[in-house]
Design a protein that fits this description.
Number of strands: 14
Helix content: 25-40%
Strand content: 25-35%
CATH class: Alpha Beta
Number of domains: 1
Bound molecules: cytidine-5'-triphosphate
CATH architecture: 3-Layer(aba) Sandwich
Radius of gyration: 17 Å
CATH superfamily: CoaB-like
Order of helices and strands: EEEHEEHEEEHEHEEEEEH
Strand order of the largest sheet: 5-4-1-6-9-10-12-13
Number of helices: 5
Length: 217
């Protein structure tokens, strides 16, 4: 199976020295890529700016912004001839500044208002490709929520045409950004939920890859 994994945050620059981003470290996505490669799959990892080494056997494409990540994913996936799974673990910025100044903005010229425009939703774009790929493209998402993770996850799973979504409540101890562990549930479009206990991100990655292999033998 071909597995394309996105990981890490994206950066949306305001000027050459400032950007909007989030605390994602990329660890969860890198663990999925490492595990998929260990299981013998052909893995491409599309990474936002993170400080992690490339896992063994994985080919890596580095990107900075959400638009770059979107272009990279679409070009790697193409119209797949062979079964391809995209695991979208990246914390993609939903918004970017309407303009990026070429020179550092001086605070005396700023008025405290930042105009933002929406970034592309990468999974939704891929859902369009999936329709044309004759069942060869499968999508798996992540949903980091602050409360009621399952309900939001079911909605996103349906809207983004996902096989399943890995949901977690980042306010729970041991779950979320910057820690070695995670507590997730696999949520399916029909509302079925499989809650996993607190475990290392490596173990979560192992369960995700096992589930992919089970769904798409
Ligand atoms: N995602 C994406 N492109 C975006 C934003 C998110 O592909 N522009 C993917 C993420 O990688 C993740 C899934 O969509 O796999 C859910 O991301 P999340 O930020 O939780 O969802 P949003 O669609 O941004 O929804 P909301 O803002 O309503 O929480």
């Amino acid at each position: 199976m071909r597995v394309v994994v996105t990981a890490g945050p994206t950066r949306e620059f305001i000027d050459p020295v400032r950007f909007l981003s989030n605390p994602s470290t990329g660890r969860m996505g890198f663990a999925v890529a490492a595990e998929a490669a260990r299981c013998g799959h052909d893995v491409v990892l599309i990474a936002g700016p993170v400080a992690l080494p490339t896992p063994k056997g994985v080919s890596r494409v580095d990107v900075v912004s959400a638009r770059e990540m979107c272009d990279a994913v679409l070009s790697v996936v193409g119209l797949p001839d062979n079964p391809t799974v995209v695991v979208s673990a990246a914390a993609v910025a939903d918004w970017r500044p309407a303009t990026c100044a070429r020179k550092k903005l001086k605070k005396r010229h700023m008025d405290g208002v930042l105009n933002l425009v929406r970034n592309p939703d990468i999974l939704k774009r891929l859902a369009g490709v999936e329709r044309r790929a004759g069942g060869n493209l499968r999508l798996v998402g992540f949903a980091a929520e602050t409360g009621d993770a399952v309900c939001e996850a079911v909605r996103k799973c349906r809207e983004k045409r996902l096989s399943f979504i890995v949901a977690n409540d980042v306010t729970e101890p041991g779950a979320g950004f910057g820690v070695e562990t995670n507590k997730v549930a696999f949520v399916y479009p029909d509302g079925q939920v499989e809650q996993l206990p607190l475990m290392s991100k490596r173990s979560v990655a192992r369960r995700i890859v096992r589930q992919l292999q089970h769904l798409y033998p």
